[in-house]
Amino acid sequence: MANPLNTLRFPLHGERLIEASAGTGKTYTIAGLYLRLLLGHGPLIEEGADAGQPSAHERPLSVTEILVVTFTEAATAELRGRIRGRIHEARLAFMRGESKDDLLAQLLEEVEDHELAARRLLAAERQMDEAAVFTIHGFCQRMLKQNAFESGALFETEFLTDDSQLRLQAVSDYWRAEFYPVDKTLASAVRALWPSPAALLREMNGWLDNSELEIHPALGDETLAARHQAAMARIGAVKDAWLAQTDEIRRQTDGQISRYTGKNYEGWLAKIADWAQDESSGYAIPKELERFGQTVLEENLKKGGAVPTLPLFSQIDELLASRPGIRDLILQRAAKVVRSRMQASKRQAHQLSFDDLLKDLDGALGSGLGERLCERIRATYRVAMIDEFQDTDPQQYRIFHRLYGGHTDTALLMIGDPKQAIYGFRGADIFTYIQARRNVSAHYTLGRNWRSSSALVAAVNGLFEQAKDPFIYEADIPFLPVEAQGKSKALLLDGATAPVLHCWQLSGQPTFNRGDYQSKMARATAAEIHRLLTLAREGKALIGDQAVKAGDIAVLVRTGSEGKLVQQELARLAIASVYLSNRESVLEQVEAREILLILHACQNPSEERSLRAALATGLFDLDARALDGLASDERAWESAVQEFMEYRSIWHRRGVLAMLRALLHRRNLASSLLASPYGERRLTNFLHLGELLQQVSSELDGEYALLRWLGEAVSRPGGQDAEQVLRLESERKLVQIVTIHKSKGLEYPLVFLPFICSHRTAETPLYHEADEAGNRTILDLTGAEGSLAEADRERLAEDLRLLYVALTRGVYATWLGLAPVRSGNGKSEKTELHHTAIGYLLQKGEEGDAETLATALTELSQALPGVAVGEPSLTRPAPLPPEEELLGEPQVRHFTGILERDWWISSYSGLAAQGHGHSKGVLANPGFDDEVVTEAAVLAAEQPEEAPQPSIFTFPKGARPGTLLHSLFETIDFQSAGGEPLAEHIASLLLQDGFDESWAPVLQQQVEAVLDTPLETGFGEPVRLRDLAPEHKQVELEFFLPMGRVTAPALTALCQQHDPLSRGNKPLGFATVQGMLKGFIDLVFEWQGRWYLLDYKSNHLGMSPADYSRPALARAMAEHRYDLQYQLYSLALHRLLTLRLPGYDFEQHFGGVFYLFLRGMPQGGIFHTRPSRELVLGLDELFRNGDRSGGVSSTELNEVEA
Questions:
Q1: Which residues are annotated as a binding site for ATP?
Q2: Which residues does the annotation place in the binding site for Mg(2+)?
Q3: Which positions are annotated as binding ATP (predicted)?
Q4: What is the domain partition of the chain in residue ranges?
Q5: Which of 101, 412, 633, 804 could serve as 404's disulfide partner, Cβ 3.0–4.6 Å?
Q6: pLDDT at residue 1053 is higher than 90
Q7: C-alpha span between 154 and 156 (Å, rounded)
Q8: Average confidence (pLDDT) over 398-405
Q9: Is the dihedral of CA 1112, 1116, 1119, 1124 positive or negative?
Q10: 1113 versus 207: which is more confidently predicted?
Q11: Residues 6+ positions from 365 with CB-CB distance below 8 Å
């Protein structure tokens, strides 16, 4: 029996269950129990099994000893904030000696030492950042790390927040191994079930994390080939018999069986004959064959007709009763193999997913060292409070039961509401809650609703009391009506108190199909919201004394498609709304494809096709006439080309986000988008994509890599990355559309449930079965009708709980959309309503028709005074006029802060740039030379009219070819590169980057020449790149160097003093900068005990090897300020060796620098130098401590310029 919970008398030890119905103050209660644990509060228990025992824990606890677990990061943050706030309120109460809060006032009476209590609460408040308030996964991760020895956890692991690609890879590997070798017939049968590995994954995705799932029938030794062969034999036997006995079939059925005559009969025979002759039909069995089974024939036998005796008819019955198939066997094997492959892949890569955390901790607690681990965790957390316990699963419950079960000196408090267990699709298991409910010695209830009005609470109570067993599992999930605290406000319409439960009843026809029902209810919802807002503007729709606002209204739906229906209807009436449950990726939206076209045009402004495609996007809002006019208006076209060249320049200098913002401002996109339908949504997507692309670009090698990434992401969106999920388009107080699942825990003044008669019957025979060991989860693939019926019973039970959640969100009024809904387009007057949650309550689980529903609603309205039944208005009113906002005179806001302008992440190219600017973003991109863009533009005019002979000198110039050459040397194994594998790799890169494959022989010859060219080090034997083993080199070494206050004069003076190449160069001209210097070194390698850095250059210096002589290279190095580049890279390598190499000495271990101008090798093209020790140490000192000679800072300079 459940006991009413008294927060100040509740026993704080042992295993206890608290059932908190909707709106009864669950979080308030948790915070109150938390306070008692901090204070050590607890008088003697006066009644029950624990009478005479203290209710307090054995001693006051700190915040690090009280574990609070919930299931989402958002809930964790909210709980932590609510507990912190409650501690603060209590501390002030103990300091002041008084409180208006009833619970705190009683605590003040019962806690003797107020000063000590205030000190304890102050300590707790200061320590709240360390409080043990975690998600279940966060708790498991922390326990595995802190107890690595007992748990056997790896010390270095990568945490996977999104394992969707890993899953797809594992299924694809299984698909290739299992199905590629099979014959054509079997392959076709597999493709008929699942057209791709992704389709197979979609069916089994939810099973992969449940290692305890039992799949029936049990997997034996039967092979797929053997099953297929036997199935084809059974089908083939029926086909052969049919073809051989066609005349006898006709003799025994034609005219002998009712309705087996005429065109229909002949059509059946023809279709079956076609099937019998089709060798490629596989597992398909025509529906017409059912008419020739022995059972059907006898049922339709004419009076006095001869009973058919052909054995084939019984053979057909047997075939149809046990249809041949391979689906169950494939799913059985796939689940086992894919799960194993995923685990192996994660172990090999030292990766963990969310579910691995639970599995690993569960396994550790059940191992030989499990009891020791349990003791350590109990010693750390003396009390555990599990919030939203109804959403737990067997594994989670087993973890906490092992930790705290049977221990009276600790406490396990499980808090939840089984009536709100609605996350079965995530693995939550109501049957685990039921098991825990049976295991605990005592459970308690919170029975007073503080959320809704008294009338609405009474209406919801009355609705659920209509059915004898409202939640199906009456013994374990009883419905206990809650009391209402009582709110003084109510919804007033035209001066009268409105009903609290509006039941709209569609009539006019016997039944409605689902599509008709939803479209009518969406229209009715929009019309009613329009009416409420119109009345509110007239002062006739009030909540208390406040006019109803759009933000007071929520429409709760099951799916995104339902939400869009409502949003479209509201938009037709000019009512703004926001969908709060959108989990789609921003990369699936049209704006992502439009931005991809714009980026292509920015990279190639002179390419007419790309530029036209970009200008034709909806973002530019150009009509057909304007686009056509560009073809004839040369000046306008040149202006567009110039505009996109400027965008390309901004992209290159400042990044993709800056470029998109420049486009936004230049084209006034914000105002044009906001003036269009769904403009806020489109503008939000545009800005979101800009930020996402900027973030991604920092991890990629240049603009072309970003274009490839976006192109692939747009063509194959997916994954679970939170950064890609659509953002909320508006924070204005709009009509809110939200899924029932997401609305859980929230409240809304007015709630609409327009599609409450929609449901989806269970399609997967997944159900639960209790035995002595607990609850088993069973997936029955045998096709047994009872299994699917049990699964649908569990589906209905969860739908009832979902209905309870929906009906308890409203504060003042709720609208329900009801109709006699049928499935499909049949003409039956019987409805499917009894299969829905609302129909189960109203019709007490019985099948019925429109009259049945009407009678039930009439009885409900007569029994409950707050319920009103009526027809919804389906008339679409005129759009709602815009509401004029009363705004004061706008005032310019004055900025009084100080901008710190000289801390940046800069790069070599930023420091090498002339003028008083410097890099305000990361411009260092691996595999990309800034100068090749200019070089390509200059050389473009020098191209001969006839195609030149292919050679490394005639290979295209510019950024893309340069990136390709870098990528080539990054991705090959120096020692084995050559022959056919190298040729194939080069051809693949050429195709990938849009180059003709005919360049492959030229590049292969050049690559092999570069690898085999001896590089003189000045220390003993020369080195060839081909001599370098993988463990002696590192490609694309990324570095970040801290910079003190570095000035251009100081850096110039240092470099010119110690490097002859810098001595002849112009002084550097960047503004004073401090922060971080980022860069990528193409190659760092070790040779004979010395370390070298190497950079590849794709610069075109001429058409012969003589153009790549040492003097020519020195000129190119100086012209492009590569001297500064290798000086900074040398500093980076020096810092790395200082940290990583024991006993490092510059003279002994630093080898030098190689710059390989690839087009000039092997005859020339090699620049080698070794910066002096004085230069490198001087750079180290300058970057570490900055220029101490004084001078104007960049902040001061910027202020002067402003």
A1: 20-27
A2: 966, 1082, 1095
A3: 20-27
A4: 2-132+381-446, 225-321, 483-580+733-870, 586-724, 905-951+1028-1199
A5: 412
A6: yes
A7: 6
A8: 94
A9: negative
A10: 1113
A11: 373, 374, 398, 399, 402, 403
pLDDT at 526: 97
Q: What is the mean pLDDT of the chain?
A: 88
Diameter of the chain by CA atoms? 119
**pLDDT digits over 989-1045, tens only?**
898 778 888 999 999 999 999 999 999 999 989 999 999 999 999 999 999 988 888
Shared fold status for 2-132+381-446 and 483-580+733-870: yes
DSSP symbol at 725: B
Q: What is the per-residue pLDDT for 2? A: 78
C-alpha 357/C-alpha 160 separation (Å) is 11
Q: Tell me which amino acid residue 1013 is.
A: T
Amino acid of residue 317: D
- Comparing 728 with 405, the larger pLDDT belongs to 405
Class of the CATH-defined domain 905-951+1028-1199: alpha beta
d(CA 287, CA 267): 12
> What integer is the mean pLDDT of 99-119?
94
Chain mean position to CA 672: 31
Nearest alpha carbon to residue 685 among 567, 578, 587? 587
Q: Does domain 586-724 have CATH number 1.10.3430.10?
A: no
Give me the amino acid identity at 143. Answer: M
Give the residue-averaged pLDDT of 393-422: 92
Contacting residues for 827 by C-beta, under 8 A, at least 6 apart: none
**HEC secondary structure over 787-818:** HHHHHHHHHHHHHHHHHHHHHCCEEEEEEEEE
Hey, is 942 helix, strand or coil? Answer: coil
In this predicted model, what pLDDT tens digit does every residue of 583-603 receive, in sequence order? 778 888 889 999 999 999 998
608-615 and 624-632 helices, crossing angle to 10°: 150
Residues 6+ apart with CB under 8 A from 1187: 1044, 1045, 1046, 1047, 1049, 1050, 1072
1162 cis-preceded (ω within 30 degrees of 0): yes
Taking the CA atoms of 717, 721, 724 and 728 in sequence, report the sign of the dihedral they define: positive
Tell me yes or no: is domain 483-580+733-870 CATH 3.40.50.300. Answer: yes
Q: How far apart are CA 602 and CA 656, in angstroms?
A: 10
pLDDT digits (tens, 9 = 90+) for 697-756: 888 888 888 998 888 888 776 555 667 766 666 656 789 999 999 999 899 999 999 999
Residue-level pLDDT at 826? 65
Q: What distance in Å separates the CA atoms of residue 673 and residue 941, rounded to the nearest whole number?
A: 41
pTM over 0.90: no
Using a pLDDT cut of 70, give the percent of the chain over it: 92
Please check whether residue 862 is in contact with residue 466, taking contact to mean a CB–CB distance below 8 angstroms.
no
| CATH T-level assignment (fold) for domain 2-132+381-446 | Rossmann fold (3.40.50)
Mean pLDDT of 82-105: 95
Return the structure tokens found at 841.
């309550």
Where do the DSSP E strands lie in 644-700?
Answer: none
Query: Around 753, how many Cα atoms within 13 Å sit in the side-chain half-sphere?
Result: 28
**Helices vs. strands in the chain: H and E counts, helices first:** 46, 31
Binding site, annotated residues: 20-27, 966, 1082, 1095
Residues 8-31: tens digit of each pLDDT: 999 999 999 999 999 899 999 999
- DSSP summary character for residue 1015: B
Q: What is the pLDDT of residue 1012?
A: 96
Beta strands 1150-1157; 1166-1169: pairing state? antiparallel
| Cβ-contact 445, 4 below 8 angstroms | yes
Question: Tens digit of pLDDT for each residue in 316-362?
Answer: 999 999 889 999 999 999 999 999 999 999 888 888 888 889 999 99
Tell me how crowded residue 278 is: count the other CB atoms within 10 A of its CB: 12
Q: Is residue 1062 a contact partner of residue 1056, using CB atoms and an 8 Å limit? A: yes
Residue 970 in tokens: 């990054």
> Catalytic residues, which ones?
1095
